[in-house]
Write a structure and sequence with these properties.
Distance between the termini of chain B: 24 Å
Radius of gyration of chain A: 27 Å
Largest sheet of chain B: 8 strands, parallel
Mean pLDDT of chain B: 94
CATH architecture of the largest domain in chain A: Alpha-Beta Barrel
CATH topology of chain B: TIM Barrel
Structural class of chain A: alpha/beta
Number of domains of chain B: 1
CATH class of the largest domain in chain A: Alpha Beta
Number of strands of chain B: 10
Strand order of the largest sheet of chain B: 8-7-6-5-4-3-10-9
Order of helices and strands of chain B: EEEHHEHEHEHEHEHEHHEH
Oligomer: heterodimer
Low-confidence stretches of chain B: none
Radius of gyration of chain B: 18 Å
Number of strands of chain A: 17
Strand order of the largest sheet of chain A: 10-9-8-7-6-3-12-11
Largest interface: A-B, 43 and 48 residues
Largest sheet of chain A: 8 strands, parallel
CATH topology of the largest domain in chain A: TIM Barrel
CATH architecture of chain B: Alpha-Beta Barrel
Low-confidence stretches of chain A: none
Shape of chain A: globular
Helix content of chain A: 40-55%
């Protein structure tokens, strides 16, 4: 179980020597408890205490890096079962399967797509994460050729999938220095897989069908010197995956089974309904998700789902405040005000674009609060409106002096009119009613 | 995981023996665990949404579904016979026209839908306070005895719909704006004016994928875990409809050849995830989403 600051304090030397860099032993204990200090920096701890503290204060799920460079996949270090309890930190890698039986042309096309195709949503660039090269041919040299062809073209994180160490080693000759994830060691062959992982410094996937089985196997691998591990619960149905991944997450974060404190692997290609499996992997604790190549619709939907689920609930994505033209407005076009909570902005924008109504959208800085909460908190007020009109050049952009406030900002409409001298109209509460409102009132 | 609470069971639809004309009754609720884990309730149900005025309906759905969309009764029939829906959710969009007064038309539509399908019904009445009372009482009366689910009650306008539900023996959908406390408050209000707990279904409001869906997902998880921990004011089944899915930019502006598929994936991801978060009823508009969800739920429920 995790130790609290006071429990840690009790076993510290209590000398307040400051040699750890903190003013007192209690301050040091608090930093250790929150994972921000390393117990090893105390020079007066005996070996036993140091180990005890180390085990209790390291992150409950190990951080594992796959690949190198800007596109590397970093997973693990999750701390909660539900995103509303804090947040989910590291989005799962969506890894596209490339069998080594494909023609070089096919390999090329798919690998290039994964590397280059990008969607931009809410100001973030969304990509698929990497490739999962699977040894279907059974031949080591075929596998090696496929890995080499991919290496030559792209610099994406890779998973190398084979049950045979000699096949993996052939692939590692091509990409061993780029931290590919090896997949997968079982109870029967883990020593040879561990040898490979150690030789090339690669992370390793272990496969077992139960929490106990996985805990045994990770413990054995750690004894062999391999600590960067990923676990494949080898579920045969999505239902089984959900049950196992939930048990694993719970056991890891509550530290009841510390040996399963590693990211989880989810191979959707083994399920009869890969789409459901992929969505489930994203929602329920999958950290590396292997999928068949995804065409446009699936790719966009799953990347968006991943973005949604891994958004920090306490830090809403914000839009840059400013004056935005919608549907090429003229100087006579209406001026609408909204807030910089990205969701509000994109919803309003969606309806305006859909209705093809030219207008100016003035996005004011409410620090990411929605209209309703910004009005309640006093952040959306007449001063902000006046300053934003000036700062973003609204007076020059339009020839009229009428602005439309969101429906939920009705309580401040009088004060805005007084302070800005603009005529204020109160728009609808629901963005869906904007097109009708604009047609009726301004048309 | 073990929990102390249990979700109330709500029945929708009444057969001949129970005084209605439905060919089956849908029962939702009864969960004692998070969805699809041991002790969870049965398969989530899928409602196909239809309407009586297609002016604001997604052209993608209208094109795919075909001519029956001009007749709510025929549309409902197809939802059952061809698309395999568990429920039909009728949106009385005709009531949203400016100057609406055709209450008799509303009755006729509901009667036609009841004729067209034997499935239990969800009926969405007006969203204009000035006609609420008339419209909801017409809905309640036209479906009297059928134990439908009437929508939608909100904190500032729940009396008309609840009154119709109480008077004619229907259940009610209680919608709150992605907020667990407001969801609870509305359930208490409805209870106080005579709605029993086992006739309330919570609609925590579902934003479209990429447009606030994460808030809805988390509020559903919060409502469900609170209920399982023993909060009886939140221990009702949930309904989720990411109704904006087909109007958002990614779907509207998808290349022509993949627009249908994008629409289906967008509805699928939200509805599937909502079920994983705890929704017992998910609502979709594209018939192909329905088919895809059925398959997905079957695998999750361990039936395939």
């Amino acid at each position: 179980m995790a130790l609290k600051a006071l429990d840690i304090y009790k076993i510290l030397p209590k000398k307040n020597c400051k040699e750890c860099g903190f003013p007192t032993c209690l301050a040091f204990a608090m930093k250790i408890a929150s994972g921000k200090a390393d117990p090893a920096t105390c020079p007066y701890l005996d070996e036993e205490t140091r180990q005890k503290l180390g085990a209790a204060t390291r992150p409950p799920i190990r951080l594992v890096r796959i690949g190198v460079g800007p596109r590397k996949v970093v997973v693990g270090e999750e701390t909660v079962l539900f995103r509303h309890d804090k947040t989910f930190y590291h989005p799962p890698g969506l890894m596209v399967e490339i069998p080594d039986t494909w023609s070089p042309g096919q390999v090329k096309v798919v690998a290039a797509q994964i590397e280059n195709e990008m969607f931009t949503r809410v100001g973030q660039d969304l990509f698929l994460s990497g490739v999962a090269i699977r040894n279907v041919s059974g031949a080591a040299d075929t596998f090696q050729k496929t890995v080499a062809a991919i290496e030559e073209m792209v610099s994406l994180p890779e998973i190398l999938i084979s049950d045979h160490p000699e096949v993996l080693e052939a692939g590692l000759i091509e990409c061993g220095t780029y931290r590919p994830l090896l997949c997968a060691a079982t109870d029967a062959n883990y020593t040879s897989f561990c040898r490979l992982a150690t030789k090339f410094g690669c992370p390793l996937t272990v496969r077992a069908g139960s929490v106990e089985g996985l805990a045994n196997l990770t413990t054995k691998c750690v004894q062999e010197g391999v600590e960067d591990l990923v676990m494949d619960p080898a579920a045969t149905t999505p239902r089984e995956f959900l049950a196992l991944s939930t048990q694993i997450r719970k056991a890891a974060i509550e530290r009841t089974v510390p040996a399963v404190g590693y990211p989880v692997y989810c191979d959707t290609t083994t399920y009869p309904d890969p789409d459901a499996a992929c969505a489930l992997g994203v929602l329920k604790y999958g950290s590396l998700i292997v999928t068949r190549p995804l065409e446009y619709s699936r790719k966009l939907a799953f990347l968006t789902l991943r973005q949604n689920i891994y958004t920090d609930p306490q830090k809403p994505i914000q839009m840059a405040p400013g004056l935005y033209p919608v549907n090429s407005p003229g100087r006579e076009s209406p001026l609408l005000i909204t807030v910089n909570f990205s969701l509000t902005y994109f919803t309003v924008l969606g309806y305006l674009e859909g209705a093809k109504i030219p207008c100016h959208l003035l996005v004011v800085d409410t620090e990411g609060l929605s209209v309703l909460t910004a009005v309640a908190a006093g952040k959306l007020n007449e001063t902000l409106v006046r300053e934003s009109l000036k700062k973003f050049g609204a007076e020059e952009a339009v020839s009229h002096r009428t602005l439309v406030l969101p429906g939920y900002a009705a309580p401040i409409s009088g004060r805005v009119e007084e302070m800005t001298g603009w005529k204020v109209m109160v728009g609808p509460r629901d963005a869906a009613d904007l097109p009708e409102f604009l047609e009726k009132e301004m048309g | 995981m073990t929990w102390s609470g249990e979700i109330d069971r709500v029945h929708i639809g009444a057969t001949k023996q129970e005084g209605g004309t439905r060919s089956r009754v849908c029962t939702v609720g009864g969960a004692k665990n998070l969805p699809f884990l041991e002790g969870a309730s049965e398969m989530p149900l899928i409602a196909l949404e239809i309407c009586d005025d297609t002016g604001s309906w997604s052209p993608i759905v209208l094109a795919y579904t075909g001519d029956v969309t001009r007749d709510a009764g025929e549309w409902a029939k197809k939802a059952e016979k061809e698309f395999g829906a568990d429920l039909v959710r009728l949106h009385l969009t005709s009531t949203r026209k400016r100057g609406f007064s055709d209450v008799r038309g509303v009755r006729t539509t509901i009667e036609a839908v009841l004729q067209g399908t034997g499935l239990p019904l969800i009926i969405e009445g007006s969203n204009e306070p000035s006609v609420d009372s008339e419209v909801f009482s017409a809905c309640g009366e036209a479906a009297a005895g059928e134990r439908a689910l009437l929508g939608t009650a909100e904190a500032d306008r729940y009396r008309s719909v609840a009154a119709a539900a109480v008077a004619f023996g229907h259940g009610v959908i209680a919608q709150s704006p992605i907020d667990i406390n407001l969801a609870k408050q509305l359930n208490i209000l409805l209870h106080e004016i005579g709605m029993p707990h086992d006739r309330i279904v919570i609609d925590p409001f579902t934003g479209a994928l990429g447009y606030g869906f994460e808030y809805s997902y988390s509020v559903m998880e919060r409502i469900r875990t609170a209920a399982l921990k023993g909060d009886t004011d939140l221990a009702m089944p949930m309904i989720s409809a990411a109704a904006d899915s087909l109007n958002i930019k990614e779907v509207r502006e998808a290349p022509q050849e993949v627009r249908d598929e994008t629409a289906v994936m967008w509805e699928f991801c939200a509805a599937f995830s909502a079920a994983v978060a705890g929704a017992e009823i998910v609502c979709v508009r594209h018939p192909r989403t329905l088919e895809k969800l059925k398959k997905g739920f079957a695998h999750l429920a361990g039936e395939g």
